[in-house]
Amino acid sequence: MRRSPVNVRARVAVLAGALVVLAVAAGVGLRGDAPAPGVPLVPTPPGGDAGAPVPDPFAYDPDEEDAFVRRAAAGSAHVLYARSPGGATATAARVARWRAQVEAAAQAAAVEPDLLEGLVFLESAGREDALAGGIQDAAGLTQILAETATNLLGMRVDTRRSGRLTRRIDRALRRGRLLEVQRLRAKRRAVDDRFDPGKALAATARYLTIAKRALGRDDLAFVSYHMGIGNLQGVLRAYGDDRPSYARVYFDSTPTRHADVQRRLAAFGDDSSNYLWKLYAAREIMRLYREDPAALARAQALQTAKNSAEEVLHPAGSTPRFATPQQLRAAWDDGVIRALPSDRELTGLARDSRMGELAGRIGAVPGLYRGLRPEALALALYVGAQTREYSGGQGPLVVTSTVRDEQYQRRLMRGNREATRNYSLHTTGWAFDIARRYRSERQARAFQFVLDRLQVLNVIAWVREPGAIHITAADDANALLPLLGRIGEG
């Protein structure tokens, strides 16, 4: 369902430039001293001795807002790469054709031209004839609804004639009559301004001007392009501030803090809440297209290698893989791999009893396959703690798989069609799986929030598999290493 007056359908692509390191020392807690008053903490186990309090390095910090925004652009990029028509480079080339018109529209609206260009990338992938559904739906370079075009933006849109011409264009395309297609598209532009790129961009500038007047900020105006001005105003009223930055509203709202705001954002269900981060990601991919096309090509390859951005976090060759049980055992001995505890009360996690069940078939023991790298283990503890907190104490989540070696992975492939035949992040110790079995809908929603928030912060990549959620931790999970003190591993 579309929620914005001028909405999007194109789910295109954009980069996650270089990983941005977020300042993780929230107060002085990560240096081992007591956290400063008011510093958000990672939730502690109920009634247990969790050791020293651990500041939450991924809780919103207004002093680090720019870093949060950069992370959000990187963490939101994968879907744009994965769904960009023809690939990110091809989409960027289409978008770049409209730069002169984009700059004119941006000047009229007094907004950043690079961000408006990102909007074109995200909305239509640079295709001036993009159509989201029927002719009443979003159409054109900036995906404007017919009703919004006529009632708010002063555009000429004759839906009856435009619809008839669209059907004739479709027939001509199927028959390969390209000259006829060109003629019919010109006629459609004459009766439907949305298909005229210059007029569409000018109308988008008018919308952003209206939105800025109502909302008072450029970032909020761009958010409203997908969410709608009225919907966003409702979110801001619930937050209690009519002109905060969108980063503050978004990152400062969780299921336990500004909970009504978080529920409102989650209820849209159409990526409205993450729209701004995708615009920033689109802006970055256009920058790379112009300034570093080789880096864009590398990013495209990594972003599309898997169904998540896990290879962006850990490209092949960037971290050791464990080839055999012997190599994995040596990693345990060196402290490179550490055990996933079985204490569900302490961790909010439970180990599946079948973890490592194939070990005997390759001459190993199951316990060899029940651990992770320290950063990934700390990330798993964070997920367990946050999900339990947000679900009102429900738990545990069930961890079904952790580290493997390549020999175990090959054995797994024989009976599991979901097991990758290529580079598996399980063989590096950075990845683990959590069963898609939940105590309640509330726990499922809490877990989903934790996944989405960590992905936006570029701390994880995750993908939904038939029976489990596959999670890969980024290097930046090292900010959570103090959590290992809860299990005697700090």
Note the topology.
Elements: H1 65-75, H2 78-83, H3 88-96, H4 99-109, H5 113-124, H6 146-151, H7 159-174, H8 178-191, H9 197-215, H10 218-227, H11 229-239, H12 246-251, H13 259-268, H14 275-291, H15 293-303, H16 310-313, H17 325-333, E1 338-339, H18 344-347, E2 349-351, E3 371-372, H19 374-390, E4 397-401, H20 406-415, E5 431-435, H21 441-456, E6 460-464, E7 468-473
Parallel strand pairs: 2-4
Antiparallel strand pairs: 1-3, 4-5, 5-7, 6-7
Which range does the strand content fall in? 5-15%
Structurally, the number of domains stands at: 2
CATH class of the largest domain: Mainly Alpha
Helix-strand sequence: HHHHHHHHHHHHHHHHHEHEEHEHEHEE
- Report mean pLDDT, rounded to a whole number: 91
Distance between the terminal alpha carbons, to the nearest Å? Answer: 48 Å
Structure write-up:
The chain is mainly alpha-helical. It has two domains: 182 residues, Lysozyme; 178 residues, no CATH class. The protein has 21 helices and seven strands. The protein has a five-stranded mixed beta sheet. A hairpin with a 3-residue loop joins strand 6 and strand 7. Helix 7 runs antiparallel to helix 8, helix 10 packs across helix 11 and helix 19 crosses helix 21. The two termini are 48 Å apart.
Summarize the structure.
The chain has 490 residues and is mainly alpha-helical.
